[in-house]
Write a structure and sequence with these properties.
By secondary structure, the protein is of the alpha/beta class. It folds into three domains: 178 residues, Alpha-Beta Plaits; 153 residues, 3-Layer(aba) Sandwich (Rossmann fold); 85 residues. 35% of the residues lie in helices and 19% in strands. Strands 2-3-1-4-7-9-8-10 form an eight-stranded mixed beta sheet. It has a six-stranded parallel beta sheet with strand order 11-13-14-15-12-16, with helices on both faces. Helix 10 links the parallel strand 14 and strand 15. Helix 2 runs antiparallel to helix 3, helix 12 packs parallel to helix 14 and helix 13 packs parallel to helix 15. The N and C termini lie far apart (67 Å). The N terminus is likely disordered.
Length: 466
Amino acid sequence: MSTFPGPAPASGTVTLLFTDIEASTRLLHAVGDAYRDILALHHRLLRQAIAAHSGWEVDTAGDGFFVSFQTARKAVEAAAAAQRAFHHQTWPEGAKVRVRMGIHTGEPTRTESSYVGMDVHLAARVCGAAHGGQVLVSGTTRRLLGQDLPVDVDLQDLGSHRLKDIAEPEQLFQLLIQGLPQDFPPIRAEAGRIHNLPVPDQPLIGREKEVEAIGTVLREPGTRIVTLTGPGGTGKTRLALAVGLDVGPSFEDGVCFAPLASIGDPALVIETVAKQLGVPENPGRPAMDVIREGLDNRRVLLVLDNFEHVAEAAPQVGELVRYCPRLAVLVTSRVVLRLAREREFPVPPLPLPGNGMRPGPRDGTGSNGTTNGRTGGVPDIDQLLSHASIALFVDRARSVRPDFALSEENAAAVSEICRRVDGLPLALELAAARIKLLTPSELLRRMDRRLDFLTGGSRDAPERHR
């Protein structure tokens, strides 16, 4: 335990600084007995910076320091001052001494002469993720700093990373100190698991076989690109989301969803992907290089939605899978990308009921007195509901009219509605939304009169779905 004279340790919210000389054992072997002088000089320079910024030396072990500050700004100022002193110092034997530092703010439990708790462990892990000469700052400290940064320093977002023995990924930032080196290798931590798939607000109906088949293909180690193709309204996006949720556990580094419908310029696709992946911006470097470095050998599923809008960017997708060996890409598009190693999976409309049931003067009975090919005017409701198109229509109708049910009276009209829209899921959902005010037979008659009747959907639905 250190006997460094300084202010009493703060309680409540404190900012913790951990420091450590990089490769100190190798340095000891290189300089021999001079290491004692190097260590003494290191301690003196660091303690000067701590004292100048009202820090309290909690503990010292070998070349490592544990320090607390009452404010995040003081901790950052002390770290910057110490790094400047280390950088400009002429060390014995011409040694190169590089010190890594980590800063985190929390509310650790105060003991008589120290602190304990998870915040202490997190601060130590932040330090352990840094390289010599680098200062890393936790997301909590960054938020507390806000715009209150000292002169000549800035913060660079390094993204979310998983630190050893810490349950949740931590957002990390690098302290950029003017006049000192700012380019370091990737930090010494595993990047956090990616998961930004939107959560659908309604169940997927009638696509169980497709989810299983596509999932089986994506789980194969050699699969790189799977493209779900089909005209608008077949439910490609919804199917891709279901597949992403299904195969997610097989991709240990996560699933990333990148919507492209609003992107008009193919040149912006890679920047959009980088943003969705959480890869930090690095001015002056191409986004493709930053993504390749961030993904490296990580097992990630990238979902590119509505790629037909930016089809000219297809070669960039091919480049991604070439340089990221464990990346798999799931694409939704009206057209194939025409890339090597691409596997197409056409998405068909939902299965329709047979033509035996036609609506007659009333909702329930055809002009020949048969329903669904059966005599006696009694439709087989269970059999009709086994058709995914009808099951989807009924489910969505119930979301706007809870008492709606498929019955002998409306079965023929519902079946005909499904046939009129060719079993397209989007059209079925738009039609079902009208059941709030119309019976199936009334809806069918209006569809006869107006081809554009099925427009307008949920206000929060994508524009292409309204």
